[in-house]
Structure prediction request, 126 residues.
Amino acid sequence: QVQLLESGGGLVQAGGSLRLSCAASGRSLSSYAMAWFRQAPGKEREFVAAINTIGRSEYYPDSVKGRFTISRDNAKNTVYLQMNSLKPEDTAVYYCAARQGYYYTTTARIDDYDYWGQGTQVTVSS
Prediction:
């Protein structure tokens, strides 16, 4: 079983950048597809970015496409989310998720992911 720990959240002004990290322990991330989700107060958890097991395919919703970039470093057992041009509507708790198995494709479905981190707060001020 893999454990996930997010870090890098904080308070940033609109237009600024943050880089989130998701460090894994217990198992190698090389056999997991990974994703980031977020949840704002009073809203459902929503998909932010996904990357396949070998890091060759990425998927983003229109709301963050061109601003956010997901990447992975399997040697460091870490997944990243680079967030640029942040907007107040990006304010949420950001969660890292892992899907066990070797996948060439990506998925935005919450139920497809097997393991979740505790989340890190991102607050964007206007």
